[in-house]
Amino acid sequence: MQQLTIDPTFDIHDHRHGLKLLKDDRETMVLENRDDVFACPACGNAFDRLFVSEKRTQSFGNPNTPFCMVRTDTQLLVLTH
Ligand SMILES: [Zn+2]
Protein backbone atom coordinates (compact mmCIF):
# COMPACT_ATOMS: atom_id res chain seq x y z
CA MET A 1 0.00 0.00 0.00
CA GLN A 2 1.05 3.57 -0.58
CA GLN A 3 1.36 6.25 2.05
CA LEU A 4 -0.88 9.29 2.10
CA THR A 5 1.10 12.50 1.76
CA ILE A 6 0.02 14.65 4.70
CA ASP A 7 3.04 16.87 5.22
CA PRO A 8 2.40 19.75 5.41
CA THR A 9 -1.20 19.12 4.32
CA PHE A 10 -3.26 16.53 2.48
CA ASP A 11 -3.88 17.44 -1.18
CA ILE A 12 -6.40 15.49 -3.24
CA HIS A 13 -4.42 16.16 -6.40
CA ASP A 14 -1.54 14.01 -5.15
CA HIS A 15 -3.88 11.07 -4.61
CA ARG A 16 -6.24 11.10 -7.57
CA HIS A 17 -5.20 7.66 -8.80
CA GLY A 18 -6.41 5.87 -5.68
CA LEU A 19 -9.07 8.01 -4.04
CA LYS A 20 -12.55 8.62 -5.38
CA LEU A 21 -14.15 11.90 -4.40
CA LEU A 22 -17.62 11.17 -3.01
CA LYS A 23 -18.52 14.53 -1.56
CA ASP A 24 -16.95 17.97 -1.68
CA ASP A 25 -17.97 21.31 -0.33
CA ARG A 26 -15.90 24.33 0.47
CA GLU A 27 -14.40 23.10 3.72
CA THR A 28 -14.90 19.33 3.79
CA MET A 29 -14.37 16.32 1.52
CA VAL A 30 -15.25 12.65 1.68
CA LEU A 31 -13.07 10.24 -0.31
CA GLU A 32 -13.20 6.51 -0.90
CA ASN A 33 -10.02 4.45 -0.79
CA ARG A 34 -10.51 2.48 -3.99
CA ASP A 35 -9.02 -1.02 -3.92
CA ASP A 36 -7.20 -0.20 -0.67
CA VAL A 37 -4.53 1.72 -2.56
CA PHE A 38 -3.55 3.84 0.45
CA ALA A 39 -2.69 2.98 4.04
CA CYS A 40 -3.98 4.89 7.05
CA PRO A 41 -1.21 7.23 8.27
CA ALA A 42 -2.19 6.55 11.89
CA CYS A 43 -2.38 2.75 12.09
CA GLY A 44 -0.92 1.55 8.78
CA ASN A 45 -3.95 -0.53 7.77
CA ALA A 46 -6.12 0.02 4.72
CA PHE A 47 -8.98 2.43 5.37
CA ASP A 48 -12.43 2.67 3.87
CA ARG A 49 -13.32 6.36 3.79
CA LEU A 50 -11.33 9.50 4.38
CA PHE A 51 -13.00 12.63 5.67
CA VAL A 52 -11.03 15.87 5.40
CA SER A 53 -12.13 19.03 7.18
CA GLU A 54 -10.68 22.51 7.35
CA LYS A 55 -13.43 23.65 9.71
CA ARG A 56 -12.54 24.58 13.24
CA THR A 57 -15.16 22.27 14.71
CA GLN A 58 -16.77 19.11 13.42
CA SER A 59 -19.55 16.89 14.73
CA PHE A 60 -20.29 13.31 13.77
CA GLY A 61 -23.20 11.03 14.29
CA ASN A 62 -22.46 7.52 15.45
CA PRO A 63 -19.61 6.31 13.21
CA ASN A 64 -20.28 2.71 14.30
CA THR A 65 -16.86 1.67 13.01
CA PRO A 66 -13.24 1.96 14.16
CA PHE A 67 -11.65 5.19 13.03
CA CYS A 68 -8.32 7.02 13.19
CA MET A 69 -7.61 10.73 13.24
CA VAL A 70 -4.72 12.67 11.76
CA ARG A 71 -4.13 16.37 11.88
CA THR A 72 -2.11 18.56 9.56
CA ASP A 73 -1.41 22.26 9.97
CA THR A 74 -4.83 23.20 8.58
CA GLN A 75 -6.87 20.00 8.34
CA LEU A 76 -8.46 17.29 10.40
CA LEU A 77 -8.47 13.88 8.71
CA VAL A 78 -10.77 11.12 9.92
CA LEU A 79 -10.24 7.66 8.45
CA THR A 80 -12.81 4.93 8.96
CA HIS A 81 -11.99 1.23 8.88
ZN1 LIG B 1 -6.17 3.77 10.95
Jot down its keywords.
81 residues; 7 strands; mainly beta; two-stranded parallel sheet; binds zinc ion
Write structural notes for this entry.
By secondary structure, the protein is an all-beta fold. It has one domain. 0% of the residues lie in helices and 38% in strands. It contains no helices and seven strands. A five-stranded antiparallel sheet has the order 2-3-5-7-6, with no helix packed on it. Bound molecules: zinc ion (ZN).
Short description:
This protein is mainly beta and 81 residues long. The chain is built from no helices and 7 strands.
- Number-wise, the strands total 7
Structural class: mainly beta
Major sheet = 5 strands, antiparallel
The count of helical stretches stands at: 0
User: What is the overall shape?
Assistant: globular
Helix content bin:
under 10%
- In total, the number of domains comes to 1
* Residue share in β-strands: 35-45%
Order of helices and strands: EEEEEEE
Radius of gyration over C-alpha positions, nearest whole angstrom: 12 Å
Report the end-to-end length measured between terminal Cα atoms.
Answer: 15 Å
If strands are numbered along the chain, what order do they take across the biggest sheet? 2-3-5-7-6
Instruction: Give the uncertain stretches in residue-range form.
Output: none
The distinct ligands, each listed once, are: zinc ion
Mean pLDDT: 95
How would you summarize the topology of this molecule?
Layout lengths: L1 E2 L15 E6 L3 E6 L4 E2 L9 E5 L13 E5 L4 E5 L1
Parallel strand pairs: 1-4
Antiparallel strand pairs: 2-3, 3-5, 5-7, 6-7
The structure holds zinc ion.
